[in-house]
C-alpha cells in the first residue's frame, strides 16, 4: 500500500509536467521550464533515495530499504527526461553541438556524468542482476555517490547571481555523504581496535 | 505615435511580435527575485510615481528629469529583436525616444566618453535585493560607450504594445539597446552619469569572464557556460523549440557594425 503511495508520489511530478505542457502552463519558454523541472526532480529523488539507508540505521523507518530501488529508478527516469529534453530542446539532436557542449562546458559534462553513473545502476537494479553480481553489486551501486556529487556540481556551476538554491543542494548532499563517511570511519577504527 | 524616421534604418522589424502576455510574465529583473515569474508577481510593490532621473558627471548642465519631463519627449514606436544572454529572444514593440535626445539636453562635454546608468535601489519595495544569498552588489549598474549611447537605435523606452511600461519590464523608463544582450538594457533608471572612464557594470563585477562591458550579441563568442550560436525565439513549444541561429549584433550589424571597426570582438566581448 505504501509502495503504491510512494510510486504515485514520485510519478505525480511527471503527470503534473504533462498536464502543464498540454495546457500551455509551462509559459513562453517551456524548454527552460521542462529542463529545470526534470533536473530538480531527478536531484530531489536521488537525495531522497540517499536518505533511506540513514533512516533505517537511525531506526526512523525500518522498512525504508524496500523503496530504495523504486526511488532510485524514478531519479533515473527524471534524469532521462532531462537528458532527452537537452537533446531535443537545447541542441536539436545535433551530434556536433552535443559533442561541443560536452567538451567545452564542464557543467554539462558534470550533468551527463551524473546520468552516466546512474545508468549501470538502473540496468542492474533487477533481482537477477543483484544475484549474479553478488558482492560486486554492492560496490557497483556505490556509484550513486559520485552521481549525486555530479548532480550538485551540475547545478552549482550554473548558478548566476542567487546561489541560495544551489547551496541548499550542496548542503543536503554533503550531509548525506558525510553521514556515510563518518559511519565508515567509525567501523574501520572499531575493526582496527578489535584486531589490535 | 509618430512613425520612426527612416524605415530602412533597422528601427522596426517585420518579424512576428512576441505576445504581450509573454513579455510581461517572463522577465529578468533580479531586484524582484531570480525566478522568471517573480518580477510579474512582485514588481507592483515598486513606486514609479513620483520618479526622477538625475543626470550628472561630464555635462555642462547637470540636473534632474522628472516624470513630466520624461513624458515630454516626442514618442515613437520601435519594434526590436530582444536577445537575452541566456539564449532566448523576443520581438517587442517599444515606445520611447532615442537616448541622444535626452543626453543632448544636458550638454555632454568633450571629456564625456562613457555613460553610466543606475537602477532604482529601494530595499523596502524590492524583495530580491533583500535575499541574503544574492551576490549582486546593488544598485544595478550598466554602461555604454558615448558613441553607442548616441546611436539612433539606442532607445529610452517608456511603453510597449501601445501602453505604459509595466513595472516588471522596467517602468517608468528603461534603456533598450537592441544589438546587445538584454541585461545591458537597464530597467527603472534613476541615474545617468557621463564619465571619462569606462564604468563598472554589475554583471562584470560579478563575473567579468562571462559578462563583458560590450556584451554585443555575437554567435561567434560563446558564453563560457553555454553556446550563443542559437536562440529560442519565444514563445516556443516543446515540439517546436523554435531554435533559430543568432545573428551578429542581433541583426543590427548594418547599423552598428562601424562602431566596432578594428576591434577584436572576442577580446572586447
TrEMBL record, chain A:
GO terms for biological process: protein repair. Binds 1 FMN per subunit. Binds 1 heme b (iron(II)-protoporphyrin IX) group per subunit. GO terms for molecular function: electron transfer activity; FMN binding; heme binding; metal ion binding; oxidoreductase activity, acting on diphenols and related substances as donors. InterPro entries: Fe3_Rdtase_TM_dom (IPR013130), MsrQ-like (IPR022837). GO terms for cellular component: plasma membrane. It is found in: Cell membrane; Membrane. The keyword Signal does not apply. The chain crosses the membrane at residues 41-59, 71-93, 105-123, 143-160, 166-183. The keyword Flavoprotein applies. It is a multi-pass membrane protein. It comes from the Bacteria. It holds the Pfam family Ferric_reduct. Signal peptide: none annotated. Keywords: Cell membrane, Electron transport, Flavoprotein, FMN, Heme, Iron, Membrane, Metal-binding, Transmembrane, Transmembrane helix, Transport. Its main location: membrane. Residues 38-151 form the Ferric oxidoreductase domain. Its cofactor is FMN; heme b. Part of the MsrPQ system that repairs oxidized periplasmic proteins containing methionine sulfoxide residues (Met-O), using respiratory chain electrons. Thus protects these proteins from oxidative-stress damage caused by reactive species of oxygen and chlorine generated by the host defense mechanisms. MsrPQ is essential for the maintenance of envelope integrity under bleach stress, rescuing a wide series of structurally unrelated periplasmic proteins from methionine oxidation. PANTHER family: PROTEIN-METHIONINE-SULFOXIDE REDUCTASE HEME-BINDING SUBUNIT MSRQ. Heterodimer of a catalytic subunit (MsrP) and a heme-binding subunit (MsrQ). Belongs to the MsrQ family. This is Protein-methionine-sulfoxide reductase heme-binding subunit MsrQ. The lineage of its organism: Bacteria, Pseudomonadati, Pseudomonadota, Gammaproteobacteria, Cellvibrionales.
Amino acid at each position: 500500500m505504501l509502495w503504491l503511495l510512494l510510486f504515485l508520489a514520485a510519478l505525480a511530478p511527471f503527470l503534473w509536467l504533462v498536464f502543464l505542457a498540454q495546457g500551455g502552463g509551462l509559459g513562453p519558454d517551456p524548454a527552460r521550464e521542462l529542463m529545470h523541472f526534470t533536473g530538480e526532480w531527478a536531484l530531489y529523488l536521488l537525495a531522497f533515495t540517499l536518505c533511506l539507508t540513514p533512516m533505517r540505521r537511525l531506526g526512523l523507518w525500518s522498512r525504508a530499504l524496500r523503496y530504495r530501488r523504486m526511488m532510485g529508478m524514478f531519479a533515473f527516469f527524471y534524469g532521462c527526461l532531462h537528458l532527452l529534453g537537452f537533446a531535443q530542446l537545447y541542441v536539436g539532436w545535433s551530434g556536433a553541438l552535443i559533442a561541443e557542449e560536452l567538451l567545452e562546458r564542464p557543467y554539462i559534462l558534470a550533468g551527463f556524468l551524473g546520468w552516466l553513473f546512474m545508468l549501470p545502476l538502473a540496468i542492474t537494479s533487477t533481482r537477477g542482476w543483484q544475484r549474479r553480481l553478488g558482492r560486486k553489486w554492492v560496490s557497483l551501486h556505490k556509484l550513486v555517490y559520485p552521481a549525486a556529487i555530479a548532480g550538485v556540481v551540475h547545478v552549482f556551476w550554473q548558478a548566476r547571481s542567487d546561489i541560495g538554491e544551489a547551496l541548499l543542494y550542496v548542503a543536503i548532499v554533503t550531509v548525506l555523504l558525510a553521514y556515510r563517511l563518518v559511519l565508515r570511519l567509525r567501523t574501520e577504527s572499531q575493526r582496527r581496535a578489535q584486531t589490535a | 505615435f509618430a512613425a520612426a524616421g527612416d524605415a530602412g534604418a533597422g528601427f522596426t522589424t517585420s518579424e512576428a511580435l512576441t505576445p504581450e502576455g509573454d513579455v510581461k510574465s517572463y522577465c529578468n529583473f533580479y531586484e524582484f527575485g531570480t525566478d522568471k515569474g517573480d518580477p510579474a508577481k512582485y514588481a507592483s510593490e515598486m513606486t514609479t510615481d513620483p520618479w526622477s532621473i538625475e543626470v550628472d558627471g561630464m555635462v555642462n548642465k547637470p540636473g534632474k528629469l522628472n516624470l513630466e519631463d520624461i513624458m515630454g519627449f516626442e514618442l515613437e514606436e520601435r519594434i526590436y529583436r530582444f536577445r537575452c544572454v541566456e539564449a532566448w529572444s523576443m520581438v517587442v514593440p517599444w515606445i520611447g525616444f532615442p537616448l541622444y535626445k535626452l543626453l543632448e539636453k544636458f550638454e555632454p562635454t568633450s571629456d564625456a566618453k562613457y555613460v553610466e546608468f543606475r537602477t532604482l535601489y529601494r530595499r523596502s519595495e524590492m524583495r530580491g535585493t533583500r535575499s541574503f544569498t544574492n551576490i549582486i552588489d546593488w544598485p544595478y549598474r550598466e554602461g555604454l560607450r558615448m558613441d553607442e549611447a548616441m546611436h539612433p537605435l539606442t532607445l529610452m523606452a517608456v511603453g510597449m504594445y501601445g501602453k505604459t511600461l509595466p513595472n516588471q519590464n522596467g517602468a517608468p523608463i528603461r534603456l533598450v539597446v537592441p544589438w546587445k544582450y538584454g541585461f545591458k538594457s537597464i530597467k527603472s533608471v534613476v541615474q545617468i552619469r557621463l564619465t571619462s572612464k569606462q564604468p563598472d557594470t554589475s554583471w562584470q563585477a560579478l563575473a567579468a569572464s562571462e559578462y563583458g562591458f560590450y556584451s554585443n550579441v555575437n554567435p561567434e563568442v560563446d558564453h563560457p557556460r553555454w553556446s550563443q550560436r542559437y536562440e529560442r525565439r519565444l514563445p516556443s513549444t516543446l515540439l517546436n523549440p523554435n531554435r533559430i541561429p543568432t545573428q551578429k549584433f542581433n541583426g543590427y550589424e548594418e547599423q552598428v557594425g562601424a562602431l566596432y571597426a578594428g576591434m577584436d570582438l572576442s577580446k572586447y566581448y
